[in-house]
């Protein structure tokens, strides 16, 4: 009955397969590689309890009251220092605190996208980023990645083609470090070159960076934002993966003019982000608790990443390929083109193991022979057992495909 009342924007909103799918994976017997959740084994419960209790005594009003739309001053100053550690020199007026970086994706889309505007994304790309762009009816053009991230040769060809047709893109959205879903990172030389292309073809870059601190081998790469001279890069950060997601605190770094517009957009969305969460993050940040948590998480996830790679090598058949992430939560598995990862998922669930099938990460429903494994949640034993179970499902499917083929040939 409501269909005729829904706006055009609402009519084309789609439910995320991932969110729907979580219901199936919630059974305790399922080993789930599905959710991009931080590990429950390493939540900083004691520190959060202690700091929260103290703050409620010391700064009761700031904890319980509304806070400024742009974010609490202390937290913005902490974020300025956090960015300075990455070599990114900005002031508090360049920072907007958001309710998770997902809100950053929504607000940026809200202020820049008119229906039909062209936005480029990686293929595959983060489902929540695609959703935000789609909700404002952006026209998504996707560009392939290789093991050094976005293919700039293809991007440049696309930009040339658009320019020749008198068209332009608004922005390019990408996750340069340990991409969700592929786990791949954009090579440093490509980051620099991408900024040059943005200057040449006059588009903006939306850099979504929840994972760069979770690097398990070698030093962090400079962000794309590090190469930005003209303020074309809008950077999104988040405390969800490096600290705790439940308090919903993220941030945007951008030119002041952009921040001012985002503040207006945020006012009609939620007035302000969670005041308690902001105080808590600022205090935990200043007291070194977040830095410590990052170190602990890196140790935990490095072991899980290693176990995942070891188990994939041990059990998966040679027809299957996967990425080798240097950080983050994910590896991307590619099956032979004749297998469909969604069909396979139902068989995997019967064996009590789950992942997210690839098409959720494609703007046009491609990537049907791929899937995302998230290694952040299962324990080492569960990783080995889960990958073993998956390998058996895949091998059975490969064998039955071969058997069908043999019958056809005969
Ligand atoms: C690439 C990417 N961007 C944004 C988000 C949203 O994170 P937040 O909890 O900060 O809203 C996620 C969460 O999985 C993500 O993987």
TrEMBL record:
<keyword id="KW-0808">Transferase</keyword>
<dbReference type="InterPro" id="IPR004839">
    <property type="entry name" value="Aminotransferase_I/II_large"/>
</dbReference>
<comment type="similarity">
    <text>Belongs to the class-I pyridoxal-phosphate-dependent aminotransferase family.</text>
</comment>
<dbReference type="GO" id="GO:1901605">
    <property type="term" value="P:alpha-amino acid metabolic process"/>
</dbReference>
<feature type="domain" description="Aminotransferase class I/classII large">
    <location>
        <begin position="36"/>
        <end position="389"/>
    </location>
</feature>
<comment type="subunit">
    <text>Homodimer.</text>
</comment>
<protein>
    <submittedName>
        <fullName>Putative transcriptional regulator, GntR family</fullName>
    </submittedName>
</protein>
<keyword id="KW-0032">Aminotransferase</keyword>
<dbReference type="GO" id="GO:0030170">
    <property type="term" value="F:pyridoxal phosphate binding"/>
</dbReference>
<dbReference type="InterPro" id="IPR050859">
    <property type="entry name" value="Class-I_PLP-dep_aminotransf"/>
</dbReference>
<dbReference type="InterPro" id="IPR015424">
    <property type="entry name" value="PyrdxlP-dep_Trfase"/>
</dbReference>
<keyword id="KW-0663">Pyridoxal phosphate</keyword>
<dbReference type="InterPro" id="IPR015421">
    <property type="entry name" value="PyrdxlP-dep_Trfase_major"/>
</dbReference>
<dbReference type="Pfam" id="PF00155">
    <property type="entry name" value="Aminotran_1_2"/>
</dbReference>
<dbReference type="InterPro" id="IPR015422">
    <property type="entry name" value="PyrdxlP-dep_Trfase_small"/>
</dbReference>
<dbReference type="GO" id="GO:0008483">
    <property type="term" value="F:transaminase activity"/>
</dbReference>
